Amino acid sequence: MSVSEITKGGGEYIGYEYKRLSVDCGKASMYIDAYANFGWLQDELTPAKQFAGAVALNLKRDRKFPNKAELIRLERHFEACMDEIDTLEKTETRNASIYSIIVGLIGTAFIAASVFSVTAESPVIWLGVAFGIPGMIGWALPYRLYIQLTKKREAEVAPLIERKYDEIHGICEKGNSLTTN
Prior knowledge:
4-stranded antiparallel beta sheet, disordered N terminus
């Protein structure tokens, strides 16, 4: 039934409950598809709005939906799984960033020591060179370190994320079976 049929008086009255979600742009389609399995429809009167890498989704569902308690439980389980996926995805780069920054700061300290040893009142050139070499390595190494650690963590996390997606598909199947009965 379309909105125009409802406003013209066609059909029976349906009371809706509404839900507004703010989700990552890259996962908006997955949220829309998953929530459809829990009886939620995208509200066509208030379209999704995009802002700063996120999308505000407006959903609605019949208030008198059967099996509502079980659907709410499944929704919460779905949301918890999505939060776990987000957390796992963030860990892919977090430690790599930390280690790369630390190595870069150590390299900077060596460069500073090199500069101070060369610009001192009685310059010690050999000490400047001795501090400069590890300093330059400390500046060149962080990018490669970041890439290597990120790839290693992605390989560790990928199977965990895939298991969470499998769990989400099972949750959506259960929700769909409740909404189609």
